[in-house]
Amino acid sequence: MPEASKRDATEKPHHAGHRERLRARFNTAPEALPDYELLELILFRTIPQRDVKPLAKDLIALFGSLSGVLHAEADRLHDVKGVSDATVTDFRILREAGLRLSQAKVLRKEVISSWAALLDYCSASMAHNPIEQFRILFLDRQNVLIADEVQQTGTIDHTPVYPREVVKRALTLNASSIILVHNHPSGDPTPSSADIEMTKRIVETAKPLGIAVHDHLVIGKGRHASFRSLGLI
Predict the structure, then answer these.
(1) Average pLDDT rounded to a whole number, residues 205-215
(2) Are residue 136 and residue 178 in the same domain, yes or no?
(3) Which of 25, 183, 190, 228 has its CB surrounded by the most CB atoms within 10 Å?
(4) From CA 53, how far away is CA 47, in angstroms rounded?
(5) Residue 131 belongs to a domain
(6) Would you state the pLDDT for residue 6?
(7) Quick check: 114 and 105 in contact, CB under 8 A?
(8) What Rg do the C-alpha atoms of the chain give, in angstroms?
């Protein structure tokens, strides 16, 4: 075999060394890696035989961030050349693991003292949802979060909410107060007139039964709105 051919057969592809260096950098200072390099590390698992940096950068450009990629719908991910079923499954696993870690920081905890963690959890679970979702956080007398339940799922800009059903569920769980949460798929968390009217009806229905509405949070992309902070409750 010619010398050049022998050398070609034993040389590693250029991206092999890059993978080793990237793993080493992650082990030393994971917080220093930008989104696309963290995404590369994820892609290493399901795409072992080629350079995945271009794909990682393409995915970040298309979906805006690492979070956007992990929360993207499977159909949209499959439209990207190079993304396999195994890759989509890995993304779903990481998304669910992250959500459960966020949930563990707030469930059975006193909400007021863990408000930042609560906002992080709501954002992780709802900010990238392509349709509106209305959920309720149920609190006991010590403001400890005892349950988090999705009550309704709607369209891209509307979710039907029934105040009596909200209050009925709070009574069933023996909750003393609730926090309303819903997302705006548009990304803009500004409360709509319908949001304000719906919240007013829930407050009016809950108050005579001794159930307080602490807040109504509207989750957007990277932002949120608090009815209490806005003086709407």
Answers:
(1) 94
(2) yes
(3) 183
(4) 11
(5) yes
(6) 47
(7) yes
(8) 23
Q: Output the DSSP codes for 13-53.
A: PHHHHHHHHHHHHHHH-GGGS-HHHHHHHHHHHH-TTS--H
What are the distances in angstroms from CA 233 to CA 1, 8, 145, 198, 201? 81, 70, 20, 12, 11
14: pLDDT strictly greater than 90: no
3-state secondary structure of 85: helix
Buried b (16+ CB within 10 A) or exposed e, 43-57: beebbeeeebbebbb
Q: Phi/psi of residue 154, each to 5°?
A: -120, -135
Average pLDDT over residues 205-228: 93
Q: At what angle do helices 35-46 and 14-28 cross, to 10 degrees?
A: 120
Q: How confident is the model at residue 9 (pLDDT cuts 50, 70, 90)?
A: very low
In this predicted structure, what is the pLDDT of residue 7? Answer: 46
Neighbours of 29 (CB within 10 A): 8
Q: How many domains does the chain have?
A: 2
pTM of the model: 0.72
Domain identity same for 13 and 50: yes
Per-residue pLDDT, 151: 83
Q: How confident is the model at residue 121 (pLDDT cuts 50, 70, 90)?
A: confident
Q: Pick from 154, 116, 102, 136: which is nearest to 215 by CA? A: 136
Sequence-distant (≥ 6) Cβ neighbours of residue 36 within 8 angstroms: 53, 56, 57, 60, 66
Residues 85 and 173 in one domain: no
